[in-house]
Amino acid sequence: MAIVKTESVGFSYESNRVLKDISFETREGEFLGIIGPNGSGKTTLLKIIDGIFAAQEGSVAINGTDIKKIKRHDVAKIIAVVPQDSPVTFSFTVQEVVLMGRAPHLGRLRFEEQSDFEIVRKAMTMTDILPFAARSINELSGGERQRVLIARALAQQPQVILLDESTAFLDIKHQIAFFDLMKNLNKTEKLTVITVTHDINLASFFCDRVMLLNNGIIHSIGTPDEVITAPNIKEVYETDVLVDCNPQNGLPRVTIGIHS
Amino acid sequence: MSHKIITLARVIKICGVLILLFIAMAIASVLIGPAKIGIIPGLKGFFFGWQEGYAALTPSEKTIIFSIRLPRVIFAGLVGASLSCAGVIFQALLRNPLADPFILGISGGSAVGAIIGIMLGLGSVPFGIPGLAFLGAVLTVILVFLIGKSSKELNSTTMLLAGVIVNAFFSAVIMFLISISSNADLHNIAFWLMGNLSMVNWTTIAFEGILLLFGFAIIYSYARPLNLIVIGEETAMQLGVNVERTKIVLFLVGSLITGLAVAFSGIIGFVGLVIPHIMRMLFGPDHRLLLPASLLFGASFLIATDTIARTLIPHSELPVGVITALLGAPYFIYLLRRRSA
User: I need a surface site. Which of A44, B137, B203, B231 has the fewest CB within 10 A?
Assistant: First the structure.
């Protein structure tokens, strides 16, 4: 069964139409990439999948249930989000922020138990932030803070993880480490990953399928081979690129800076 | 500055210490005043003096302890607790460290109500001035809510701006009323505006106490959602919080306990701003500890400052708001400096 399914979803900010007739489904354990130019509606689509925004047209179903009928904390048990960056006004420690990932499982009142601390410890180990667990989140660099948000999402123990340009501020080492981790959880724990990214090569390398959004509609969706082609990129991004075949894995590889 | 992770045991331990501090402060305050009551007979009288035929205290000493000082001390505790707790809520919901319980215009609205009451000579009518002050607070909150709700959801920034503007508007109304009021009323108005804990009786205390108890129970049940809202409203939603409901409930309960405190005591500034910060610096930003700690410490703080206000100058009484600011500001600066050092 599809874990996330949208049917003819449409959304507008006041008179500005952002998404139109978006229908797709993701099965459990899929790694889906969403690419497209600025303003093509990628982030809005993620927010609709998570129920932060309600679709004005069409519907979203999670595990076959309309998301409008699922309580907020039950959605948070299934779907976790790693945002781009989020500033924190008051100085929580790194560990406290990661512990917040347990909130949907603990409800409003229960205190964390030993098992929660273990889950959090594991998440911090996987994201390489254990050494500064006791430090204030405000003292960290942008990249370090981003890994804290990733750990928080892992501590939620979701079935689906939504990544919104989550690695934009990470160096190559942590960027690759993070996507390797996602791929690993995707393979071993059947974690479904939906990632919005501007890095087409990253999408090509890690994703099972890629969705190319353009002006709020799905331009094309399919395997990297089918979607990441020079004509598609030219049409949507209005940029000339060279798309060839990565000799190591046979996946499409995009090179910029080609002027014809 | 790092702090320990919150567990139930830690919350109970710290709150236990703060309750002891509160009790010690209350007893000390009851024994301090112009009429000297010795510590030993005073303490004995405090615990046994309510019994019929207890003779170690004179009847006038009994009256001073049980009818004058004790109600005032308890009332100071209730007001300090209400304002501190409301301060925590408003700082969290508005994600603004400068927020205090009066930021949404409650002070201006209730002041206009109280001043009208004073000018109409309602001082002798039971609940006349507090009633009008509370009405002013309620109407203001409703107004600010309606402005903040103008879009589909409750917008914190809009509410913050609306509160500032409403307060500015009411300041003009207050100035107008002051400029046309008589000299006799002026003194009362000035005292009300700077906060005053002397107008109290046991009925008021019971009323406020019960409502604060209920209010705090509701507030505390939202302690974890508050932690998440501080991080950001969208993040809180992603982590399973019904943000809209949390905001409406907490803004309303926070406004209610503030409005009640202000109605009977006037505008006591600084407590609701500075106590939450002091508690946050000492115990960290987790609301499961921050809320009860602020409640208890705010109570002790206002009891202490009110004791100073009524004893500093013999045969005279200072507005307690003067003392809260004079003591609170330097201590706050000291904590800020120590933290950045």
Answer: B203
Short-list A169, A166, A161, A241, CA closest to A201: A241
H or E element in which residue A68 lies: none
CA distance A195 to A153: 14
Q: Among B171, B190, B154, which residue's Cα sits nearest to residue B105?
A: B171
Q: How many Å apart are CA B223 and CA B154, to the nearest integer?
A: 20
pLDDT value at residue B54: 67
The per-residue b/e assignment along B99-131, b for 16 or more CB within 10 angstroms, e otherwise, is bbbbbbbbbbbbbbbbbbbbbeebeeeebbbbb
The domains located in chain A, with CATH, are 2-255 (3.40.50.300)
Query: Which residue ranges make up each domain of chain B?
Result: 8-101+191-340
For chain A, residues with pLDDT lower than 70 are 86-89, 258-260
Q: Are A172 and A152 in contact (CB under 8 A)?
A: no
- Determine the Cα–Cα distance for residues A86 and A100; give it in Å rounded to an integer: 14
pLDDT in tens, A51-79: 999 999 999 999 999 999 999 999 999 99
Q: What is the pLDDT of residues B298-312, one digit of tens each?
A: 999 999 999 999 888
B96 vs A: CB within 8 A: yes
Residue B1's pLDDT is 42
Please choose, from the candidates A106, A191, A206, the residue with its C-alpha nearest in 3D space to the C-alpha of residue A150.
Answer: A191
| H/E run at residue A45 | helix A42-49
The reply to whether residue B234 touches residue A52, judged by beta carbons under 8 angstroms, is yes
Say if the Cβ atoms of B238 and A135 lie within 8 Å. Answer: no
Q: Give A196 to chain B, closest Cα distance, Å.
A: 17
Nearest to A180, CA basis, from A229, A220, A127: A127
Q: Which of A73, A89, A96 sits opposite B240 (nearest CB)?
A: A73
3-state secondary structure of A25: strand
Nearest to B74 by CA among B62, B87, B65: B65
Minimal Cβ distance to A86: which of B227, B235, B280: B235
Question: What does pLDDT average to over chain B?
Answer: 87
Task: Indicate the helix (H) or strand (E) that contains B329.
Answer: helix B320-340
CA distances from A237 to A18, A84, A201, A256 (A): 17, 22, 15, 12
Nearest to A103 among B96, B222, B240 (CB): B240
In total, the C-beta contacts within 8 angstroms joining chain A to chain B are 92
Residues of chain B with pLDDT under 50: 1-2
Q: Where are the beta strands (DSSP E) in A42-124?
A: 57-62, 65-66, 79-82
How far is it, in rounded angstroms, from Cα B124 to Cα B118? 10
Nearest residue on chain B to A117, alpha-carbon basis: B5
Nearest Cα to B238, choosing from A56, A162, A214?
A162
Q: Helix or strand or coil: residue B180? A: coil
Q: Could you tell me the CATH superfamily of domain B8-101+191-340? A: ABC transporter involved in vitamin B12 uptake, BtuC (1.10.3470.10)
